[in-house]
Amino acid sequence: MDYQSLYDSILYAYTFFGIDSFPVDCFELVRKCGFRTVKYTDLSDKKRIACRTLSEDACLLDGTLFYEAKAHSRRIQFTIAHEFGHVFLKTDNEDKADEFASHFLAPRILIHKYKCHDAIQIHDTFGLSYQASNRALMSYKEWFRNISYSATRKPTEPELELEQIFFPEQEEAPAIMVEKQMKSVKSRRRQRLRRELDERSSFMEYLRNQRENYDFELAERQYLYGNDL
Question: Among 21, 28, 114, 121, which is most buried by a count of CB atoms within 10 Å?
């Protein structure tokens, strides 16, 4: 796995949304984007079927999050993170979007920093389902092993920057140096934001246009955007 590229995207997402605590509330991220939320039960039969064809839990279409209110909340959160994965990775690949969601909700470097040694601790700290927590634990062990055998024996630069959001190094540096260091980190993040997107509107437009596959277009034309709910 290309951790550098993956965590470049995750760091950008954390900076874009201003995430600084766990578990990540993906519904709050949807609201920050200005998206509507609509339960599957509030849709007409045709629209509900169309949404469930895309996902049993949730789907993000044209500025609206459609979701199954009866589904487990942790599954819905993962599905929303999965949809963001398509956007931030700029891919239609489902496996890559799943990888993004897992690392986005529980960054491996922070599993390490929070000293989560089992799936229960990951579940409690990061809000993943137990199944997703077990997968994250196995992935974390692989991540740690890869670092142990790497030439630098260090995580990637974006992972270290992500760590600084939650564990800023303040113990050995004077307050003024810490302030300058944090300003430098924030400046680099702002520069990354400017390079990749021009204001939130561009992000919204990209999100709406990102997934233009046949199934999406079929659902859009035939079911989701008619006059009836």
Answer: 114
Asked if residue 77 is part of any domain, the answer here is: yes
Does residue 212 sit within a domain?
yes
The stretches of the chain forming alpha helices (DSSP H) are 3-17, 26-32, 45-54, 73-89, 94-105, 108-113, 119-126, 130-148, 157-166, 175-196, 199-209, 214-219
Which of 110-119, 120-129, 186-195, 212-221 shows the lowest mean pLDDT across its residues? 212-221
Q: Is residue 184 part of a domain?
A: yes
pTM, full prediction = 0.77
pLDDT tens digit sequence for 137-148: 999 999 999 999
Task: Identify the domain containing residue 11 by its residue range.
Answer: 3-222
Q: Are 106 and 137 in contact (CB under 8 A)?
A: no
The count of structural domains within the chain is 1
Beta bridge pairs of residue 113: none
Q: Which amino acid is at 174?
A: P
